Amino acid sequence: MSVIDHAYSRWCKSRFAQPTEQAISDLEKRIAIQLPDHYRRFLLDWNGGIFKEPAIIGGQEDHPIECLTFLSGIDASNPIAELGNERDLALFDDNDPPIILPIGRTSTGCLLMIATVTGETDDGTVFLRTIGQENFYLCDTMDEFFTLLSNHE
User: Fold this and answer.
1) How many CA atoms lie within 13 A of 117 on its CB side?
2) Domains in the chain, please, with CATH?
3) How far apart are CA 15 and CA 13, in angstroms?
4) 98-116 per-position pLDDT tens digit
5) What distances in angstroms separate CA 77 from CA 8, 27, 82, 101, one per listed residue?
6) What pLDDT sits at residue 153?
């Protein structure tokens, strides 16, 4: 069982339907970016969902402990969780096309974001952005992201 299988079976309350390759390509065209390969694979296999708020532990030593509420997806059952929604894309100035893409939220409203700059060292890096607009490195792939999830203890 992969780390993502384990996390979904343990903490996912509602998983979004898996998208087609065409749906992902349509999103990339609409927002004028190419998604990092590992994130594209994650969408094809899992496509986000609503979670039972496991703690996100790890990444930078000083990042605040937050609890995962949802990971965005394509054709999400809740409009706020729709990947690439206009509200999320409008959060950042000078982010057109998106260099960073919001991909989820925590229970306190912090953003989970992924760097989308193809060919750069940060391509695919996952960050946490707090309400106070501080950014914290979490990991480099979605597989690594799921290793950061833990029970509240």
Assistant:
1) 9
2) 3-150 (3.40.1580.10)
3) 7
4) 888 999 999 999 999 999 8
5) 17, 16, 8, 19
6) 47
